[in-house]
Write a structure and sequence with these properties.
The chain contains 3 helices and 7 strands. It is α+β, with helices and mostly antiparallel strands and 177 residues long. A 5-stranded antiparallel sheet has the order 1-2-3-6-7, with helices on both faces. The chain has a two-stranded antiparallel sheet with strand order 4-5. It is globular, with a radius of gyration of 15 Å. The protein starts with 38 loop residues before the first helix and ends with a helix.
């Protein structure tokens, strides 16, 4: 997910991954499970975190940087959450709120999601963790987990709104905006 104030991609410092911008095809591809929990994974996650911070994002999923592995992260209210091979255990309630995405710079739209969610995931050592979260944090987890399945936040919108956003993003991609 994207914070309200984010840097344009041209302002990102060297040494971090470049975030893929819609309509990049990597954003629509499902990811594979992480099977190897080693030092390379730890290094990758550290650089991914640096990337998320450089782009001033709240969350980042590996497909957004072109890596089709089930790895995502969220940082909210000074807490960091690592999501590797995450699975939804339970969800309940409904909430609606504006979402943005690093892969859709400057685009925000109201999205309905569950209010509370329980997630099983692994950390970089392969240790299983369960997070029971609600509100904005539930929204952020689910947004990033959607990326791992090749699903974008605009797919939660009406056909009309989704079409308008796609048109705007395609126009940007060809240099018309």
């Amino acid at each position: 997910m994207k914070a309200k104030k984010s840097k344009p991609s041209d302002d990102v410092p060297a040494g971090v991954y470049k975030v893929k911008i819609y309509p990049d095809s990597a954003l629509k591809m499902p990811s594979a499970d992480v099977e190897c929990f080693d030092e390379d994974l730890v290094k990758f996650v550290e650089k991914m975190y640096e990337t998320m911070s450089a782009y001033e994002g709240v969350g980042l999923a590996a497909p957004q940087i072109g890596v089709l592995k089930k790895i995502a992260m969220v940082e909210f209210e000074d807490a960091f959450y690592m999501l590797i091979n995450p699975k939804i255990l339970a969800q309940e309630g409904t909430q609606e709120g504006d979402e943005g995405c690093l892969s859709f710079p400057g685009i925000y739209a109201p999205v309905k999601r569950p209010l509370r969610v329980s997630i099983s995931t692994c950390d970089t050592s392969g240790k299983e963790r369960v997070y029971d979260v609600e509100g904005f944090l539930a929204r952020a987890f689910l947004h990033e987990m959607d990326h791992l399945e090749g699903k974008l936040f605009i797919e939660h919108l009406s056909n009309l709104k989704r079409g308008m956003i796609r048109k705007k993003m395609y126009k940007r991609a060809v240099g018309g905006d």
